[in-house]
Amino acid sequence: MKKDLIKIICCPISHKDLNFVSIIENAEGEISSGKLITESGVEYFIENGIPNLIPYNPIFEKEDDRKNLYKTVSEPYVSILHKIGMDSNKIAQMDSLRFAIYSKTKKLCAEHISGRVLEIGAGGNYLKEEFKNAYNEWISLDYDLRSDSIDIRGDGQNLPFKNEIFDTIISIDVLEHVPNPEKFVSEIFRVMKPNGKVILSTPFFFYLHEEPHDFFRFSKYGLKVLFERNGFNVQEVTPTAGLISIIGILISIFLTRIFKFSKILLKFMLKINRFFQLKLLLPIDNKLDKNKRFAQGHFIIAKK
User: Fold this and answer.
1) What is the pTM of this model?
2) How far is residue 94 from each of residues 56, 132, 248, 250, 267, measured CA to CA in Å?
């Protein structure tokens, strides 16, 4: 953890200032372990250089439960891909749907990123490197420790940041996994500077995934209303991809689970699959569903 983070973080519940206690620094002068504490004595721990600013939940009685808050009923296929050596950037472009999301994310980020950026649901954290010349500071936050390169472990419904400090906030396919999307959007509004922008995507027609943490689907109209109700000026709502691309990602998941017993065979099958989908499925998707009435999901650009 970089010491400078203390200037912008706060208690995610009270929004009071935090102070360092019993910290241990590494050779680079960054904090590897210790505590963050409020004046009233609420504590948050720093482990392996990542502060855990998720509000304490008394239902987690075991230490293992606190470390693994985002348990799913089955292993996500992305975890299988990481195990065979695929990095997050390659996974983001592995089939027709993921490539469509990646391409639109890249385009919108290039147009709208500025200043201090917060990415909610950073996961593998590949966007930070992708746009390293477009921002002054990038803070990566995730609920689940899917990457050791994120800056903060936190909950988008209770963001551990002071008011009005971010110029840009990015959240790609996270909103559907949030139990209280209204609170999530209101928190984005709170920590964003006036005239700041949010770039967010979420599915509409899509299969159940990361169960049981899959709660909502949003049409373009529902997404617009959600943001306007929380004070945003919605500038753009655009579809991500169509029905054919949804079939594409299902093919990728099927291949991943069927061939996971062999790293070499799985990589070979996914390489053929990517070529087939980008050269055939994605062009068909763009031609057949021009109006995107069966949109897989939507991106929204909104301004405070």
Assistant:
1) 0.93
2) 37, 23, 10, 12, 11
